[in-house]
What we know:
Largest sheet of chain A: 4 strands, antiparallel
Number of helices of chain B: 26
Shape of chain A: elongated
CATH superfamily of the largest domain in chain A: Rieske [2Fe-2S] iron-sulphur domain
Order of helices and strands of chain A: HEEEEEEEEEE
CATH architecture of the largest domain in chain A: 3-layer Sandwich
Radius of gyration of chain B: 35 Å
CATH class of the largest domain in chain A: Mainly Beta
Strand order of the largest sheet of chain A: 2-3-4-8
Largest sheet of chain B: 2 strands, antiparallel
Number of strands of chain B: 4
CATH architecture of the largest domain in chain B: Up-down Bundle
Distance between the termini of chain A: 73 Å
Helix content of chain A: 10-25%
Structural class of chain A: alpha+beta
Strand content of chain B: under 5%
Structural class of chain B: mainly alpha
Number of domains of chain B: 4
Order of helices and strands of chain B: HHHEHHHHHHHEHHHHHHHHHEHEHHHHHH
Bound molecules: FE2/S2 (inorganic) cluster
Largest interface: A-B, 60 and 63 residues
Strand order of the largest sheet of chain B: 1-2
Oligomer: heterodimer
Amino acid sequence: MKRDKTSDESAADRRGFMTKFLAIVCGGLATVPPVLAGVWMFLDPLRRRGAAATFLPVTDLASVPDDGIPRQFAVVADRVDAWTGFAAEPIGAVYLRREKGSDTVEALSATCPHAGCFVEMESQERCFRCPCHNSKFTLDGGMVAPSPSPRAMDGLECQVAKNGEIAVKWQNFYTGIAEKVARP
Amino acid sequence: MKPQHQHDHKQTPQRPVGSLGVLGQLADFLDDRTGYRAVMHEALYERVPGGARWRYVWGSSLVFAFMTQVITGLVLWSSYSASAQTAWESVYYIQHEMTGGWLLRGIHHVMAQAMVVLLALHLMQVVIDGAYRAPREVNFWLGLVLMMLVLGMALTGYLLPWDQKGYWATRVATNLAGLVPLVGPSLQQIVVGGPDYGHHTVTRFFAIHAGFLPVTLVLMLVVHLSLFRKHGLCAKQPITRPDAMFWPDQVLKDAVAMLAVMAVVLGVILMPAVRAMLEGRPIVPGELGAELGAPADPSQPYAAARPEWYFLFLFQFLKVFEGWGASGEFFGAIVVPGLVMTAMFLMPILGRWQLGHRFNVAFTFALLAGIGLLTAMATNEDYAALWADRSSFADVEKLLEETENDKAKIAAHFGNDAAKIAAFEARAKKLERIRHSQSFLDAVALAKAEAARSIELAGRPERIPSAGMLELIRNDALSQGPKLFAQHCASCHAHVDPAAPEAEAVLAKASAANLHGFGTAAWMRGLLDPKQVAGPAYFGNTAHKEDDMVNFVQNDLTDAETWKPDDIEAVIAAMTAEAGLAAAGTAPAVIEKGRGLVADGERCGSCHTFRDNGVAAGSAPDITGWGSREWLVGIIVDPTHERFYGDSNDRMPSFGKAAEGSAPILTGRQIGLIADWLRGDWYRPAGH
Ligand code: FES
């Protein structure tokens, strides 16, 4: 038989609802700070930026013979890794190359634009080859089709000082995309 | 609760009253407070329709494998130090110095691989039996998530030793993660722990590997197992045999399977030891189980970079999209794997129809076949040189060399005969594959050698410096010498054992002296040999070819009156003593005699300054301390110094003297490393 709720019963209902509501809100609120703090800290790397791209001295003109053959050089710079500071550490490698009789030096990053392996020189085949997925590049870094790599090797800006010192603007680029986009 | 459970309770063995021992009383006490008997009963007395079967063991084996990983992982954790400067070092210590470390790490490493295999088997069994169908869909999805968690742990674990292998594989993997639309770059940065690989890559991968993933996995596993219990086992149809109880029938089969898994794992770890024993070689425990490569170094190429074997198919898959440009990599790394996972998630829905079920089974088999094929292709590409006969391509090799791989010249060689050119090109392609495989094998051999050297260095009595292992390797003459020499010296100088088969070819290409064994008696003897002094190993290819020294060796030294064989030997002894490389047991008197001859104004001292013979610098190099570290460093720093060749220096750059306003070509440290390497002066463990 249907009957109307007494006011006592409705009050109890309301209280029941309030209790549930408050239980959920309080419990929820209590867990928010640790979760938020956790996410906040976990996302810290997004704030980090790499060292600004600067020209770093690599070698001098005499070490890059003008025979069109690329030579590999380590790029040395001071480096900070989170809390550790490294003085004058090798941070990567470049290939430098000079055409016959030319004083301009071309610099290529040794990082493969496909997925970031270390591209090697194949002296016998007179080309670059990446040991990972076999992307091939010509000695001036151009694509050899068909290639898994979406673009040619990444050229780096390069300056030759009057005294012959070669400096290269060291940068990292996003891999796997057709455009050459520098990482922040 | 299902009725069968009530029925089960009747089977609970009733303990006879009055026979309570102390243990029995304790058990009663515990059961009273905890109700453990009911729980145990619930856990063990599950009905297995159609009886226990071997095909049901995969799930339990996986749980067992995971428990093994938890146990070994926790203990590894207790000795692991997550940072770019300590990860390799602590894993080295676990593997090579801690008691049983090799075994524990070996089990963790091999069991991880076993887990991937078991996953594949479990998945296959579930799909074939149609165990994903209602009401078990959710549990199937959970299983897929569990599978991804396990693969995620495998992927993150690979990096933790922070060796070259893990480092480069992870670079590729995280770069691929960067391709995910929209969030990719941020995702990559979060996982890597910043814009560059370093401390936080290690700490994050460790947290993910040992914290986030396993905790998630345990939670999901609990749900997976309770759902499995809720729905009961999906029995193989038709049921022809009587039902049995989970305990002990199925448990026995499960336990046998676990034991078999463990036996295989131990077998894989111990196999090399057995082989060594049979071949009578000593067993080195540190070399058993999991490998540890040379420490990660972003500036050192690592051409042997490959993922763990069960990810090799993904690695190979990227090569399939050759020539697709950027979309190829996106397809290979993101789209296709994404589609495959989606298809698997849809299986329970598709499986409602009989045809759909058949499709699912076919799809699973096709997938595994594809994975197998890609893995075989990858392996074949890498190891082809082991079984291919390269010598049968000698003519191709020669022609490529002669024509410098110039298409026009090759065409001309074949008189522009298209058929011949095509045949040649096909063979050239084959040769290229063999060559690539060979460079991979060489890279693996090099990686092994570098790893062995790192481990040797780490075991020095002085231990690893606080700056880390990389610092030690960068200061090791044996590791750095050959690289520095190749880069800075080898364009002119040879460094080849004159007795080696390739010596002649190498010397023919060199345009300065062969520095192999520089400072030793053998080297000196060659210099003072009239037949060799103007040869390619000494002055033959230099501007000094017709200088006084050559003249002296060819004309004066051959005069047996003034230069008796004993005299020449004495000079050799004296010079090697200058270098500090005199043969053991050389009599001091002989050295003394030699010094006298060298200083003598009628002999070597007519040109060379030696000790206090008073000859003015400039006419010939000062050979006081010839071949010593100090002397070698000096000549590399500046051969144009009057102490060395002065104005008559032939082409050799002054590596340590800076042109105005710039840095020298080589740092003092690098020059020292070259000198040490040339002199054979590097750390050797005792007993070597
Ligand atoms: S990373 Fe170079 S080809 Fe893939």
